[in-house]
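[Meeting: bench + compute handoff]

Bench side (C.D.) handed over the final construct sequence. Compute side (W.E.) agreed to return the predicted structure before the next meeting so the bench team could plan truncations. Sequence as handed over:
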Amino acid sequence: MRIQATNTPLTMRNIPRNRRETCTLLEVVLQLHGAFRRSLEPLRVTPLQAGVLLSLHRRGAAKLKDVAAALSVAPATASQVMKDLVSKRWVTNHRVPHDDRALSLRLSRQGEALVGKIEHRVRSVSTADHFLTTTMKKPV
């Protein structure tokens, strides 16, 4: 499925789904979120945790506030996710030199290995396959 670029922002307007149906952007986002969540369940990783891990993988190391900003979540939310990731030993944290309050976050070896599995699972979620399966369902 391709969405045509326009000069107007893509909001809740209808997006072509198939010849007989349309769905809103919100429906598309929620369907994809569900598909990603289901693909990550065997790894025992939430989509937000996966986002943090992938962000750290791209950056190498980052401060909590930078990860929160990159994922558009509140620092308190990022902090709780980070605590979970540190307790699972997927992320390590160290004090930033010259800033006693800031922590530098980095993936552990286990976290790096998990990122490879996450990337594989995320690639397996195909938008086209997802839309074929959801549009083929008959209304109940």
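W.E. noted at the follow-up: The beta strands are 14-16, 22-24, 61-63, 91-96, 99-107. C.D. will use this when planning the next construct.
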